[in-house]
Amino acid sequence: MVQKILVVDDEKDLADLIAFNLEQDGYRVFKAADGNQALAMVSSVKPDLVLLDLMLPGLSGLEVCRRLRSRPETEHLPVLMVTAKGQEVDKILGLEMGADDYITKPFSVRELLARVRAVLRRVERKPDAEEVFSRGDLFIDYRSCEVRVRGRRVDLGPMEMKLLMFFAKNPGRVYSRDRLLEEVWGYDTFVEPRTVDVHISRLRAAVEEDRTDPRYILTVRGMGYKFDAGGGS
Known about the structure:
single chain; alpha/beta; Rossmann fold; Arc Repressor Mutant, subunit A; 5-stranded parallel beta sheet; 4-stranded antiparallel beta sheet
């Protein structure tokens, strides 16, 4: 499922810029220009994260955050405060009101995307409801790192195993090479983006019936790769 983000900011140009970059990173983005509209859209859109400006016409960002935290259906909704105010007291107020993180304008797009990913990762870090993946011809045991294809055990290298597990746990979403390097290899690893292609090729050779016509690990031209949990079925 594509994750949904609600951008709440009354500066239209900035909201458009943030939305564009989030969409480029694979998110579905909605926008609200004031606090009341934001609360209404949270109810209708049910976003996975809210980017919330502190200074808004009508209801302030702090009041919006307070109301979200007071409602059972939104008390755990991730909120990333985005504001031009850099004073420590504003940061403390935002965090005490329930914001999950805080970023001060001006900020780089790269920093914003990193913070969004970090907040969403923290929310997603829950024990796996399932310990195995089983779809079509593909079986993965996450705990024992055992992979079977059409009933036959397949031995994968460490990076191919990490890639396959990451894909299987995040089906349907398109990931660029840079994003895969960040998520699978980690921030501290310095390798060329094309390295991803090499490992994808090895992984396809191991799990696909026809590596030239893959069913699970699909190429999205000009964007990256995605995992089809149904195996093309």
